[in-house]
Amino acid sequence: MKLAMGLRVANSLSLTPQLQQAIRLLQLSSLELEQEIQIQLDSNPLLEKIEEQNSVESLNNLQEQERESKDLTNELNADHLPDELPVDTEWDDVYTHQPTSLGAAEFEEREDNRQGHQSLQAHLIEQVNLLHFSLVDKLIAHCIIDSLDAKGFLDCEIQEITQSVQHLLESMDYEEEVEDDEVLVVLKHIQRLDPVGVGARNLAECLMVQVQTLPENIPCRKDALVLLQNYELLISNELPKLIKQTGLNTEQLKLAISLLKTLKAHPGQEFEDKESDYQIPDVVVLKKNEHWLVQLNPDVMPKLRVNSFYANMIKRADQSDDNQYLRNQMLEAKNFIKSIDERHKTLLKVATCIVEHQRAFFEQGPEAMRPLVLRDIAEEVELHESTVSRVTTNKYMLTPRGLFELKYFFSSHVGTSTGGEASSTAIRAKIKKMIAEENTRKPLSDNAIAVMLNAEGIDVARRTVAKYRESLHIPSSSERKVLI
């Protein structure tokens, strides 16, 4: 084997840092993009954000500040000081007159009545502290309250609470023995606190406690208690067996079920800290003069530029470290601004193409959704499928029909009897509409829905209908059946 050295020319693909940055920015959501921009603003002195201010007003304000500064300097350099020097504020700007009978205060001070969120555990502990419990009973109550889940149900066994209380007593050098019956007694007290039914071990016990606390003069109160004693048949919707087992007629059963529907199935749910998760749209679609307009949301479009002050400090022939640092930072700032601009252009191009394909959806609704895949958009906008996938991930479009993720407009297709294609999203919408209009006494089976869709020219099998129905979280026909 002979070793030798030589030159060879070959082509290869490589991702430059600028291209890597552009790809990474392309898949960021609006919130992630805002965070990335803030990181760049904090780390790069040559990158700055354009504030929303009129340039003429900004120039006038700057000239006025310079003029006031010169006047103040001249007065301070004078031979004698005036009685009053110019200041930024006046006495009346800080201290306002007290309101009299002839006038009211310009600003009325109001007490902040906003209340912080109180958890279910804190709400129950406040009530327990008002009860005449012994030290051991309070300890048991605290252990029970700590074992409640978000719905207000007891999330452990009675024996576990007994063991926990016993362990705490031993750590405090108490020699008292705790039994399961004592825990059950305290649990009964907690279940009748506000909200009633909290601490129940299942839904039937929760409803049972709430019915027992109702006034006895309610007509169907006793029937509801009898119904809850056979809750297994009620949950399985076996009404004929339930009528035979309880001895209630159809009218009594109907009134008892109506009473149970007025109760709280999850007592602790109202204490959940419900923070709304708002999605900021990246694209806004509007209809104007019978045409659909697509535009980027100006609220999420950052306006960036290179800082002119630092840019003017760069000297062309200077090779010092400071000058080289400014050059590198200016190059990074320009590349970042260019990547942001390319991201917005690509997003607008893809969103416009989606709206053109799904125009029937905006006009008629989900039932008119057309089948669409990433490849169709990629070929039309001359981009790779992976680029279209990145652009449509975690991006949202605000339309007259609501807020949708861009991925929502892509769906698989099902063949039709005429040789065409139907979108799976449109088929789901049709199934949902059919079930909403069905007779609850005779709900449509999956096979019946498949036959109805075939009559409309959509070739789907029964198992496909079942898959689409389950994706919509719609129960089966036997579970949807209502006899009373």
From TrEMBL:
It comes from the Bacteria. One of its GO terms (biological process) is DNA-templated transcription initiation. Keywords: DNA-binding, DNA-directed RNA polymerase, Nucleotidyltransferase, Sigma factor, Transcription, Transcription regulation, Transferase. GO terms for cellular component: DNA-directed RNA polymerase complex. Residues 113-310 form the RNA polymerase sigma factor 54 core-binding domain. Pfam families: Sigma54_AID (PF00309), Sigma54_CBD (PF04963), Sigma54_DBD (PF04552). Gene3D superfamilies: Homeodomain-like (1.10.10.60), RNA polymerase sigma-54 factor, core-binding domain (1.10.10.1330). Residues 324-481 form the RNA polymerase sigma factor 54 DNA-binding domain. One of its GO terms (molecular function) is DNA-binding transcription activator activity. PROSITE patterns: SIGMA54_1, SIGMA54_2, SIGMA54_3. InterPro entries: RNA_pol_sigma_54, RNA_pol_sigma_54_core-bd, RNA_pol_sigma_54_DNA-bd, RpoN_core-bd_sf. Belongs to the sigma-54 factor family. NCBIfam families: PRK05932.1-2, PRK12469.1, rpoN_sigma. Sigma factors are initiation factors that promote the attachment of RNA polymerase to specific initiation sites and are then released. This is RNA polymerase sigma-54 factor.
